[in-house]
């Protein structure tokens, strides 16, 4: 019999493959969110307290915000590789997406902290709180209120941007979809499936963030 | 210096330290494979039949089979690492893979970056076109809308033709990211013709998703593919070259080629010259 | 590092190609910014109303633009239209998909800005004898742009970032030109560093010119 390599249609086994891709997407988005948020809170706080720090970190924040994610992924991959870190695409993806997340979160955190009236901090200090207590019990909770909704929007962007991690060999949902398209040529079913899937992940989250925005605005 | 400044300095020093540490290792891949008993091959799994995923979504294809043979000859286990087009070189340079098995066309310019073996595969290309265009031979492509995958050999041929014979004839070229996009663009009539391997065309036609595609004659093109290793690793390059020779003379090359490409293997030599 | 030697001269040889790509990126960013704005203004007003067919259309638009990946949107416009035998060039497809995305995000930005403007402003304009569109153009929107200026410009830059996906469907924008150049020479690192630098300069340039335009408009 003539060997035929690419004539199989979609099978049930492929749902398993796509599910793995989905899991990979969620894992990458989750780890980049954690890394980026912690980094962003620290960076955002540093940028409000020290002018030197703000000037020193501005180029990094600016560059991360104005270079396409596809290029950031390729560069993170290339440079970490050159520097001798030969680990998995998961780590490279986390670094690239996490760095972007940190840069944009920093701005949201900074805006949040600046929205706290300075009198609040002074009052807290006059009540005998030290700098750290004031930050932890007064400023951060108040900033959190303002920053939460914009931060959720950033997480949404992150989930959608993680669809590009395929360029560095990470098999996320989008990459799994492309692999199946190459094999089965069932382009439309798979592509619409991917759009629908991202939509059902993102839609409830964005709905929630909008409700939050309204609640805070009132 | 502020605390912040000190932290930044410390981070920089640390980072440079890591980099320095990494540059100290310049062992041949051959020794490493011998110690670890694992051969890591970088393979592109989005270009059937050289590399693709089978119905169980496991890596398969000519390149995958070639890698397994190579690992067997080294007494090692094959480790298939999927690489994408912009990831091929970083993966190789950074030691994430030992050898690139991706039907990569050797060119003098690319050889400034990596070291190539002599060709281990040769794809004979055909013109594939949409029924409505009436294209019958390669010469008919003059003045048409052509397409291909960025960085592929057909792309080089089209660009060269457009700069000479087909100049001012209204010929256009669009380069897509991978085979999947190119095939769809052709089916939809966004482009008039592409050059692909004969067996790929048969698979496309057999899938039933591309009812409008027909073959339009042979293309005057040998698409040589070479194995690539790190530029300074002469020891491993020597081994790889010898392996390519053995694959051909043992008949394994012809066997694999027949299996995956469905036709008799073309010669791996150009007339009148050795590689 | 790791026995890798940087060859920058290769990049300079392909530099004209990358500049041409950068020009395409600038064009698409600018045009999609304008188109997005023009579409988003009536959509924001419709969203404010909270009912009617215009509200439903603009709400669906906003949700689709914001909750699906940009890659998906591009494929729908390039190959999706192709399935109905409407074949548009990759340039047009990228321009449409980035404009679509911009319009969706800008609608929400504008809506936020509109809600910050006191309702009395509208009544005042109407009582001066202006029609509803006139009131929006001369009274409401000028104030709104002042409020949302930063978020608005940021969205313009995001439009630029999204245009980089044009590479997938054969657009010779900055990313497409870079990808081509690196595939010829395999100088992945060098080419993408230069591309990143160029994107940074374009973004800065756009931000700066937007700032100047803004100053000129609101000087009086």
TrEMBL record, chain A:
Gene3D superfamilies in the record, alphabetically? Answer: MetI-like
- Topology in the lipid bilayer: Multi-pass membrane protein
Q: Does the keyword Heme apply?
A: no
UniProt keyword list: Amino-acid transport, Cell membrane, Membrane, Transmembrane, Transmembrane helix, Transport
In its UniProt entry, what is this protein called?
Answer: Amino acid ABC transporter permease
Keyword Protein transport belongs to the record: no
PROSITE patterns recorded: ABC_TM1
Which family does the record claim for this protein? Belongs to the binding-protein-dependent transport system permease family. HisMQ subfamily.
* GO molecular function list: L-cystine transmembrane transporter activity
What are the subcellular locations of this protein?
Answer: Cell inner membrane; Cell membrane
All copies of the ABC transmembrane type-1 domain together span 22-209
Which ranges does the record mark as transmembrane? 28-46, 67-85, 91-114, 135-159, 188-206
User: Got a GO cellular component term for this one?
Assistant: ATP-binding cassette (ABC) transporter complex
Region forming the signal peptide: none
Please name the SUPFAM superfamilies in this protein's record: MetI-like (SSF161098)
The protein's matches in Pfam families, at most eight in alphabetical order, are given as:
BPD_transp_1
UniProtKB/TrEMBL annotation, chain B:
Point out the signal peptide segment.
1-24
Q: Which GO terms describe its cellular component?
A: extracellular region; outer membrane-bounded periplasmic space
- For this UniProt record, give its keywords in alphabetical order, as a comma-separated list: Signal, Transport
Indicate the family of this protein: Belongs to the bacterial solute-binding protein 3 family.
Signal recorded as keyword: yes
Supply the source organism for this entry. Acidisoma silvae
The residue ranges of the Solute-binding protein family 3/N-terminal domain are 38-264
What is any Pfam family matched here? SBP_bac_3
Kindly provide the name given to this protein in its UniProt entry.
Answer: Transporter substrate-binding domain-containing protein
Q: Which residues cross the membrane?
A: none
Q: Which InterPro entries match?
A: Bact_solute-bind_prot3, Solute-binding_3/MltF_N
The UniProt entry's GO biological process terms, in alphabetical order, are: amino acid transport
From TrEMBL, chain C:
Checking Gene3D superfamilies in the record gives:
MetI-like (1.10.3720.10)
In the UniProt record, which is one GO cellular component term? ATP-binding cassette (ABC) transporter complex
What is the top-level taxon of the source organism?
Bacteria
PROSITE patterns in alphabetical order: ABC_TM1
Which segments cross the bilayer?
Answer: 20-46, 147-171, 191-214
Family matches, as InterPro entries: AA_ABC_transptr_permease_3TM (IPR010065), ArtM/GltK/GlnP/TcyL/YhdX-like (IPR043429), MetI-like (IPR000515), MetI-like_sf (IPR035906)
**What's its membrane topology?**
Multi-pass membrane protein
**Keywords for this protein:** Amino-acid transport, Cell membrane, Membrane, Transmembrane, Transmembrane helix, Transport
Pfam families hit by this protein: BPD_transp_1
Q: What's an example of a GO molecular-function annotation for this chain?
A: L-cystine transmembrane transporter activity
Tell me if Manganese is a UniProt keyword of this record. Answer: no
ABC transmembrane type-1 domain segment(s): 22-212
User: Where located?
Assistant: Cell inner membrane; Cell membrane
What PANTHER family does UniProt report for this protein, alphabetically? L-CYSTINE TRANSPORT SYSTEM PERMEASE PROTEIN TCYL, MEMBRANE COMPONENT OF AMINO ACID ABC TRANSPORTER
Similarity remark: Belongs to the binding-protein-dependent transport system permease family. HisMQ subfamily.
Indicate what this protein is called per its UniProt record.
Amino acid ABC transporter permease
Q: What is the species of this protein? A: Acidisoma silvae
Taxonomic placement: Bacteria, Pseudomonadati, Pseudomonadota, Alphaproteobacteria, Acetobacterales
């Amino acid at each position: 019999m003539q060997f035929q390599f690419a004539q199989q249609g979609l099978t049930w086994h492929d749902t398993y493959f796509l599910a793995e891709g989905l899991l990979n997407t969620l894992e990458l988005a989750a780890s980049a969110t954690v890394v980026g948020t912690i980094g962003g809170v620290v960076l955002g706080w540093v940028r409000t307290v020290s002018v030197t720090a703000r000037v020193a970190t501005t180029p990094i924040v600016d560059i991360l915000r104005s270079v396409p994610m596809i290029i950031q992924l390729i560069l993170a991959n290339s440079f970490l590789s050159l520097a001798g870190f030969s680990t998995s695409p998961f780590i490279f993806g986390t670094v690239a997406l996490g760095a972007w997340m940190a840069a944009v979160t920093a701005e949201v955190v900074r805006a949040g902290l600046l929205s706290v009236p300075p009198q609040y901090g002074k009052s807290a200090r006059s009540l005998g709180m030290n700098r750290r207590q004031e930050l932890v019990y007064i400023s951060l909770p108040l900033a959190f209120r303002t920053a939460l909704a914009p931060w959720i929007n950033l997480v949404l962007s992150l989930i959608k941007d993680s669809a590009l991690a395929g360029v560095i060999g990470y098999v996320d949902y989008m990459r799994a979809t492309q692999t199946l398209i190459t094999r089965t040529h069932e382009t439309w079913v798979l592509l619409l499936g991917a759009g629908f899937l991202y939509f059902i992940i993102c839609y409830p989250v964005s709905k929630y963030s909008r409700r939050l925005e309204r609640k805070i605005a009132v | 210096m502020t605390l912040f400044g000190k932290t930044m300095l410390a981070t920089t020093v640390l980072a440079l330290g890591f980099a320095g540490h990494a540059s100290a290792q310049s062992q041949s891949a051959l020794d490493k494979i011998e110690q670890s008993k694992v051969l890591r091959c970088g393979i592109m799994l989005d270009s059937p039949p050289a590399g693709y995923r089978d119905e169980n979504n496991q890596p398969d294809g000519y390149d995958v089979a070639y890698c397994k043979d190579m690992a067997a000859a080294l007494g090692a286990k094959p480790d298939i690492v999927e690489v994408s087009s912009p990831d091929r070189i970083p993966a190789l340079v950074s030691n994430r893979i030992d050898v690139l098995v991706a039907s990569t066309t050797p060119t003098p310019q690319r050889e400034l970056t990596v070291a190539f073996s002599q060709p281990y595969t040769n794809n004979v290309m055909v013109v594939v076109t949409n029924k409505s265009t009436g294209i019958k031979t390669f010469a008919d492509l003059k003045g048409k809308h052509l397409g291909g995958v960025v960085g592929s050999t057909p792309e080089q041929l089209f660009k060269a033709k457009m700069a000479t014979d087909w100049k001012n004839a209204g010929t256009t070229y669009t380069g897509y990211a991978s085979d999947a996009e190119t095939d769809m663009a052709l089916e939809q009539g966004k482009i008039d013709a592409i050059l692909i391997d004969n067996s790929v065309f048969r698979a496309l036609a057999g899938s039933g998703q591309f009812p409008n595609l027909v073959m339009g004659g042979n293309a005057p093109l040998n698409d040589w593919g070479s194995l690539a290793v790190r530029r300074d690793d002469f020891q491993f390059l020597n081994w790889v070259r010898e392996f390519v020779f053995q694959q051909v003379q043992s008949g394994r090359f012809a066997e694999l080629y027949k299996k995956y490409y469905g036709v008799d293997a073309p010669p791996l030599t150009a007339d009148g010259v050795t590689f | 590092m790791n026995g890798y030697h940087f060859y920058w001269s290769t990049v300079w040889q392909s530099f004209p190609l990358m500049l041409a790509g950068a020009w395409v990126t600038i064009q698409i960013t600018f045009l999609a910014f304008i188109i997005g704005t023009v579409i988003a203004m009536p959509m924001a007003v419709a969203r404010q109303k909270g009912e009617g067919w215009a509200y439903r259309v603009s709400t669906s638009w906003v949700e689709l633009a914001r909750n699906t990946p940009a890659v998906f949107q591009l494929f729908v416009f390039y190959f999706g239209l192709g399935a109905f035998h409407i074949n548009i060039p990759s340039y047009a497809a990228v321009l449409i998909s980035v404009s679509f995305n911009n319009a969706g995000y800008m609608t929400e930005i504008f809506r936020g800005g509109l809600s910050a403007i006191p309702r009395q402003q509208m009544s005042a304009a109407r009582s001066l004898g202006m029609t509803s569109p006139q009131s929006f153009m001369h009274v409401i929107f000028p104030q709104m742009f002042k409020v949302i200026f930063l978020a608005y410009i940021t969205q313009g830059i995001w439009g630029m970032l999204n245009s980089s996906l044009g590479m997938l469907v054969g657009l010779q924008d900055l990313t497409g030109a870079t990808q081509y150049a690196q595939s010829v020479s395999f100088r992945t690192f060098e080419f993408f560093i230069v591309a990143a630098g160029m994107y940074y300069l374009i973004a800065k340039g756009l931000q700066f010119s937007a700032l100047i335009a803004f100053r000129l408009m609101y000087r009086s």
